[in-house]
Write a structure and sequence with these properties.
NAD(P)-bd_dom_sf, about 290 residues, SDR_fam, alpha/beta, seven-stranded parallel β-sheet, Rossmann fold, two-stranded parallel sheet, SDR_enzymes
Length: about 290
């Protein structure tokens, strides 16, 4: 029988020694190595991050009312950016930042709603951060009969189609100019290559399928919009301590989870480095290295 190369643990991209430029699949080992080597990029983002480029830029953030979205807005406000915050309902914390614009009632599962939002944006933006997401908390498995297909479709609709709806609406409303940057906040959980390492027992279907679909959409978008002079990058924001990841609180420390404020700086650091040369790449914001598809 013919032999075939595998994309599981035997793949160099999922091994303990990935190819140059790629990050490690095993998050516990990844964080332990960074800690042991005192890797400033991982352990102290302030040592490498310069957010001065954000002053005066117009940045649109979806899902801006809480979690990493709110943390991104807080970082943007601190750097003098003009924030266009979109969300279902603004929180007091978001309003306190006094964004240039707050657009409420945004449901990323509705094309009509996204089109209305895009028209409401007063002028073109320099950066779009597609951050809105949804994470169903219970672990789902076939073997114990715990699959919730409605929840899985909801995750796919919000996490994969949502960013595409938002980007499509903004593009056709003339709100993403040539030279614009689009950051797709997805997850390492969308890496098919890494599933045998990170999910040896399977499960959590909706989450991983939605992120893999989001990654594919982002890659296709990068290929299409590069001809318009617009850059797209796929960003894993790192492991952040938010309500959305609370079900993993017991492994926060061993896997190097950080406060959302740190995660926000990591994301903005990578967006600052985004150039046509890196268009369409899948980047781990923890260390700046690539994640395999």
């Amino acid at each position: 029988m013919p032999t075939r190369a595998r994309a599981g643990p035997s793949s160099p991209y999922a091994s303990d020694e990935p190819p140059s430029g790629f990050t490690l699949a095993d998050q516990v080992k990844r964080f332990a190595r960074a800690k042991a080597s005192a890797d400033a990029r991982v352990m102290d983002i302030d040592a490498v991050y310069d957010g001065s480029y954000l002053e005066g830029t117009r940045v649109l953030v979806t899902g801006a009312n809480r979690g990493i979205g709110l943390a991104l807005c807080e970082e943007l406000a601190a750097r003098g950016a003009n924030i266009v915050a979109t969300c279902r309902s603004a929180s007091d914390e978001l309003r306190a930042l006094n964004p240039a614009e707050i657009i409420e009632g945004v449901d990323v599962t509705s094309s009509a709603c996204c089109e209305k939002m895009a028209k409401a944006v007063s002028s073109p933006v320099d950066i779009v951060i597609n951050n809105a997401g949804y994470f169903y908390e219970p672990v789902e498995k076939v073997t114990d009969g715990s699959l919730e297909f409605d929840e899985e479709m909801k995750m796919i609709d919000i996490c994969a189609l949502g960013p595409l709806r938002v980007t499509n609406a903004l593009y056709h409303a003339g709100k993403i100019p040539k030279g614009g940057k689009i950051a797709m906040i997805t997850s390492q959980g969308g890496s098919v290559t890494w599933r045998e390492v990170q999910n040896p027992a399977g499960g959590d279907y909706g989450h991983h399928m939605s992120k893999a679909a989001a990654n594919m959409g982002a890659k296709l978008l990068a290929q299409e919009l590069k001809h318009e002079g617009i850059m797209v990058q796929v960003l894993h924001p790192g492991f952040n301590k938010t309500d959305m990841t609370a079900k993993y609180a017991k492994i926060w420390e061993i896997e190097g989870a950080v406060d959302a404020s740190v995660g926000a700086k990591r994301v903005m650091h990578e967006i600052g480095l985004m150039t046509p040369e890196y268009n369409g790449m899948f980047i781990n914001c923890e260390d700046g290295l690539q994640i395999p598809w």
